[in-house]
Amino acid sequence: MSAPPLRLPPKKMGLVVKTSSPQAIALGQQVLSRVKEKGVEVVVDAQSAPFLHAEPGPSRAALGREVDAVLVLGGDGTFLSVTRGCPATTPVAGVNLGTLGFLTEHPAERVWQLVDDLLAGNVQCEKRDRLLCRVEGDDSPQEFLVLNDVVIAKATLARILTIDVEVEGEFLSRYRADGLILASPTGSTAYNLSAGGPIVHPELSALIITPICSHTLSNRPLVVPLNFQVAVRVHPGDEDVYLTLDGQYGLPLTDRHVVRVLPEGDPLLVVRPPNASFFAILHDKLKWGDWGS
C-alpha cells in the first residue's frame, strides 16, 4: 500500500505512555530526555504528562493533529486511544509493554533504535484502513473514526439481542446473539478473533461482520468489500444496549438509532518493524507452531 507524504524527520514528536505501567512511565521519562537532547520538540498528551513530569499537551485523540509523529509506549489499548483523531500524515509507532500487542509491534528492547530511526525519518510505514461509524437517530448524527472495530452488545446482563443488518440497502440477516462485531482487517485479530471471526490480511480492503455467540448456528461471520455500507438496528425491547468503538468509547443505543459503518478515506499510518511480515507476527503472537514443523 502506498502511503501519503510524511512530515519526517519530525520537528515535533508526540509521546504517550500507558499510565498504569511503571515500566512504560520509566521508559517514557528516558525517551523524553533522549528526544529533547536531539533538539526535537516533544508533546506529551494530557493524560501522560503528570506521570512524565512534563507540560500537558492535547488529549490523546487530538495529539496526532499537532505533531509530526507519535510514539506510544504501552499496549494495543493505549495505541488505539491515539488513533481516533490521527491524520494520515502522522505515523504512529507502538512499543509493546502490554500483553499480546498486535498494534504495538516493536519490542521494548528495540526502543532506542526505533527512536533514532524515527528521528532520522528512516522508518517503514504501512497504511491501515479505518472505518467511519455514523450513529443516526438523535437530533444530529454523530460520527466516529474507528481503527479496529464497532461492537454492539449488552452493557450488563447477558441477554440475547435481536439485531437487523443491511448491506448496501439490502436486508442481510436478523441476528439473535449476544452482540455483533463490525471489524476492519486490522481489527480482525482483536475481539473478532475471540468471537470466532476470520483473520484478514491488513492489506485487504474488507469489512468483517461477526455475530457474538449467535443463537442460530447457521449465522456465520461474513466478509464484504470495505466500500459496502452496512446499517445496523436493534429491536424494540432490547434494553441497556451499548455501542463500543475500538474498546475506547461507548454510547447507549435504542431502537430509534441506526448505526452505519462506511469506509473512511483517511487511513492510519503504522510504523512497522524492519523486515517484519504479517505472517511472522501471527506466528509470534498466536504461537502457530515452530518454523519447519
Automatic annotation (TrEMBL):
<keyword id="KW-0520">NAD</keyword>
<feature type="binding site">
    <location>
        <begin position="189"/>
        <end position="194"/>
    </location>
    <ligand>
        <name>NAD(+)</name>
    </ligand>
</feature>
<dbReference type="Pfam" id="PF20143">
    <property type="entry name" value="NAD_kinase_C"/>
</dbReference>
<feature type="binding site">
    <location>
        <position position="248"/>
    </location>
    <ligand>
        <name>NAD(+)</name>
    </ligand>
</feature>
<dbReference type="GO" id="GO:0006741">
    <property type="term" value="P:NADP+ biosynthetic process"/>
</dbReference>
<keyword id="KW-0963">Cytoplasm</keyword>
<dbReference type="InterPro" id="IPR017438">
    <property type="entry name" value="ATP-NAD_kinase_N"/>
</dbReference>
<feature type="active site" description="Proton acceptor">
    <location>
        <position position="76"/>
    </location>
</feature>
<feature type="binding site">
    <location>
        <begin position="148"/>
        <end position="149"/>
    </location>
    <ligand>
        <name>NAD(+)</name>
    </ligand>
</feature>
<keyword id="KW-0547">Nucleotide-binding</keyword>
<keyword id="KW-0418">Kinase</keyword>
<dbReference type="GO" id="GO:0005524">
    <property type="term" value="F:ATP binding"/>
</dbReference>
<dbReference type="InterPro" id="IPR016064">
    <property type="entry name" value="NAD/diacylglycerol_kinase_sf"/>
</dbReference>
<comment type="similarity">
    <text>Belongs to the NAD kinase family.</text>
</comment>
<dbReference type="GO" id="GO:0051287">
    <property type="term" value="F:NAD binding"/>
</dbReference>
<feature type="binding site">
    <location>
        <position position="159"/>
    </location>
    <ligand>
        <name>NAD(+)</name>
    </ligand>
</feature>
<feature type="binding site">
    <location>
        <position position="176"/>
    </location>
    <ligand>
        <name>NAD(+)</name>
    </ligand>
</feature>
<dbReference type="GO" id="GO:0046872">
    <property type="term" value="F:metal ion binding"/>
</dbReference>
<comment type="function">
    <text>Involved in the regulation of the intracellular balance of NAD and NADP, and is a key enzyme in the biosynthesis of NADP. Catalyzes specifically the phosphorylation on 2'-hydroxyl of the adenosine moiety of NAD to yield NADP.</text>
</comment>
<protein>
    <recommendedName>
        <fullName>NAD kinase</fullName>
        <ecNumber>2.7.1.23</ecNumber>
    </recommendedName>
</protein>
<dbReference type="Pfam" id="PF01513">
    <property type="entry name" value="NAD_kinase"/>
</dbReference>
<dbReference type="GO" id="GO:0019674">
    <property type="term" value="P:NAD+ metabolic process"/>
</dbReference>
<keyword id="KW-0808">Transferase</keyword>
<dbReference type="InterPro" id="IPR002504">
    <property type="entry name" value="NADK"/>
</dbReference>
<dbReference type="InterPro" id="IPR017437">
    <property type="entry name" value="ATP-NAD_kinase_PpnK-typ_C"/>
</dbReference>
<dbReference type="GO" id="GO:0003951">
    <property type="term" value="F:NAD+ kinase activity"/>
</dbReference>
<keyword id="KW-0067">ATP-binding</keyword>
<feature type="binding site">
    <location>
        <begin position="76"/>
        <end position="77"/>
    </location>
    <ligand>
        <name>NAD(+)</name>
    </ligand>
</feature>
<feature type="binding site">
    <location>
        <position position="178"/>
    </location>
    <ligand>
        <name>NAD(+)</name>
    </ligand>
</feature>
<dbReference type="GO" id="GO:0005737">
    <property type="term" value="C:cytoplasm"/>
</dbReference>
<keyword id="KW-0521">NADP</keyword>
